[in-house]
Design goal:
The complex is a heterodimer of chains A (238) and B (325).
Chain A (H helix, E strand, L loop, with lengths): L8 E5 L5 H13 L4 E5 L15 E6 L13 E5 L14 E5 L15 E4 L12 E7 L13 E6 L15 E4 L10 E4 L3 H11 L12 E5 L11 H6 L2
Parallel strand pairs in A: 1-2, 2-3, 3-4, 4-5, 5-6, 6-7, 7-8, 8-9
Antiparallel strand pairs in A: 9-11, 10-11
Chain B lengths: L2 E7 L8 H9 L9 E8 L6 E7 L6 H11 L1 E8 L2 E7 L5 H11 L4 E6 L2 E7 L2 H7 L7 E9 L14 E2 L5 E8 L2 H10 L9 H14 L4 H11 L2 E8 L3 E6 L8 E4 L3 E5 L16 E3 L5 E6 L8 E4 L14
Antiparallel strand pairs in B: 1-8, 1-14, 2-7, 2-8, 3-5, 3-6, 4-5, 9-10, 10-11, 11-12, 12-16, 13-14, 13-15, 16-17
Helix pairs in contact in B: 5-6, 6-7
The chains are: A alpha/beta (238), B alpha+beta (325).
């Protein structure tokens, strides 16, 4: 994924640092213009690389905990291991790649940038997505894309119950089975532009979209304005 | 928050590690639950005509008088000091737990029965896991399986008696992360069936609910399936009996759990990083998270058993066509 030339590489060991110290060091290195940092022994710790707002490439050599890369901008984060809840929550721009499985709420309310899970994602993947792109190469769990508002969610595998419940806008592509759709979500026919977008997004990950049966899910927009005759739909859209 | 953890060994050669492994597993969870810590350990087996009870009194008390009371009901085989309480072994032909609890409550309301059974011992207290394990000398505890809990109180008072695990019935205890929304409704329903609640902790209702169903002759699987429909709220909880440990996650997958399965053991914890604390941690072991509404049941035995995984699929009330066809 990273074809950039590495000018300087720093190494940080989590073992001797508090999370706050580590994040402060990452910010300091970014402002010094260091292009790449390797972080060793993350040991599943929470809140790593949160709130980084200057361009820097960070490689975590191992699993990380909750909120990794959250609230960040212009970052290039790679995790060689799994991640906990809410990876890339509120991400503004940049890339986060997880070489493993993600727990719940991947890319929750991300405004921009791209989060790639090269494995399975847990429940509520892409919850409240506000403009970023989330790609899950495996399966995603229950309640994914809940209250999604913008952006793009690509799931190559199967997705659990209640997909895109109370969705406002944005687009979702699912390559496997959809267990069920939530309120106001509907399947729409794929267009050539959709296939092109999938090709652009999945080719860098060495995934051939033609090997999957991609379906497009969008908002039906039937709950945008209250109509008395649609009372039953409203009643069921808890 | 709150943290839950559990350990089941696949082979008796590891039983000696139970206390130290459990401490390693729950220590990282103190960040999720700083209020109190508790464990339910299964080991130190006794004769078939005997029964173990764990008594706890936080205030000074005449233990000798309690021993005399117990002596009227049973033969007291051993009466050992454990931290702020006593580990007692009783002998008798018929063991009536209701009578025992009634007598204890009537004569010594300041004494609490933590657990009773052939294998189970429950120890809990306010504060850190380290202090609990030191106070009760649990690092060397040998046994087949155990569950543990670190508490961040949300629904009831912070004290030792409102800490987890909660016992109900013989060798049965639970630890719970989450909230029971329909606690009062559930409590009243169970009280009408004759269940006596000891605390105002909502999690206690889960233990009594399962115990009630088991005493009705239902299997643990059946009890847990009906629980998924009857208990409203958020939960991941571990329930343990003398020969089974089960993990249940609510239908919204609101609370976390991670399962670690190696050739040596099955470990369950709220967070992945707990496993890194195990001395025998094997990165190539199967590490997974249960789905929404998933019930896992592991049998405790000397042979590895594939867990009976069942996922409860609910019919959703979608106004749209079923897409699975």
């Amino acid at each position: 994924m990273n074809n950039q030339t590495i000018l300087h590489q720093a190494v940080l060991d989590c073992t001797d640092l508090t999370t706050r110290e580590l994040n402060q060091k990452l910010k300091a290195l970014a402002s010094e213009g260091i292009s790449s940092v390797k972080v060793i022994n993350p040991a599943g710790r929470h809140n790593l690389a949160v709130g980084i707002t200057q361009a820097i490439a960070i490689q975590f050599q191992g699993a990380v905990g909750y909120y990794c890369g959250g609230l960040s901008e212009k970052v290039d984060i790679e995790v060689f291991g799994g991640c906990g809840w809410s990876v890339g929550e509120n991400l503004m721009s940049g890339n986060i790649i997880i070489h493993g499985n993600a727990s719940a709420n991947a890319a929750a309310s991300a405004h921009g940038g791209k989060v790639c899970i090269l494995g399975n994602a847990g429940p509520r993947a892409g919850i409240s997505l506000k403009g970023g792109t989330l790609i899950v190469t495996g399966n995603a769990g229950y309640g994914s894309a809940f209250m999604m508002q913008q952006g793009c969610l690509i799931i190559c595998g199967n997705v659990g119950e209640n997909l895109a419940d109370s969705i406002y806008d944005g687009v979702i592509y699912v390559g496997g089975n959809i267990a069920s759709l939530g309120a106001d979500a509907q399947i729409e026919t794929m267009t050539p532009q959709d296939w092109q977008l999938l090709d652009e997004e999945l080719q860098p990950l060495a995934i051939n979209h033609e090997k999957y049966d991609f379906k497009k899910v969008v908002c039906a927009k039937e709950l945008y304005n209250f109509k008395a005759k649609d009372w039953s739909k409203w009643k069921d859209a808890y | 928050m709150c943290g839950i953890a559990g350990i089941i060994y696949r082979n008796p050669q590891f039983y000696k590690n139970l206390g130290s492994d459990l401490l390693n597993l729950i220590q990282p969870l103190e960040t999720r639950g700083p209020d109190s810590c508790g464990v339910g350990l299964y080991g130190n087996s006794i004769e078939s005509n005997q029964l173990k009870i764990v008594l706890l009194a936080e205030k000074a008390i005449e233990w000798e008088e309690i021993k005399q009371l117990l002596g009227k009901l049973f033969v007291v085989a051993s009466f050992t000091a454990m931290g702020n309480g006593k580990l007692v072994t009783l002998e008798g032909k018929i063991f009536n737990s209701k009578e025992l609890i009634h007598q204890l409550c009537a004569c010594f309301p300041q004494v609490h029965l933590m657990s009773y059974g052939q294998f189970l011992e429950i120890y809990k207290q306010v504060g850190s896991a380290q202090s609990l394990f030191e106070n009760y000398d649990l690092k060397t505890f040998a046994g087949s399986h155990a569950i543990g809990h670190t508490r961040m109180a949300t629904e009831s008072v912070v004290d030792t008696y409102h800490s987890h695990p909660f016992a109900a019935g013989e060798d049965l205890c639970i630890v719970h992360n989450g909230q029971v929304s329909n606690y009062y409704k559930l409590r009243f329903a169970l009280e009408r069936k004759g269940v006596v609640f000891e605390t105002h902790n909502d999690s206690e209702a889960i233990a009594h609910y399962i115990n009630y169903h088991l005493t009705q002759g239902k299997s643990l699987e059946t009890a847990l399936h009906s629980l998924l429909n009857d208990i409203d709220g958020t939960y991941t909880f571990l329930i343990s009996t003398s020969d089974k440990v089960a993990l249940v996650r609510d239908k919204f997958a609101a609370k976390p759990a991670v399962i670690y399965e190696s050739p040596e053991m099955i470990a369950i914890a709220s967070e992945y990083r707990c496993f890194l604390n195990l001395p025998t941690f094997d990165p190539s072991a199967t590490i997974r998270e249960p789905d929404a509404g998933e019930i896992n049941i592991w049998s405790v035995s000397n042979v590895p058993i594939a867990p009976a995984i069942e996922v409860v699929a609910e019919q959703t009330k979608s106004a749209y066509a079923d897409l699975r066809g």
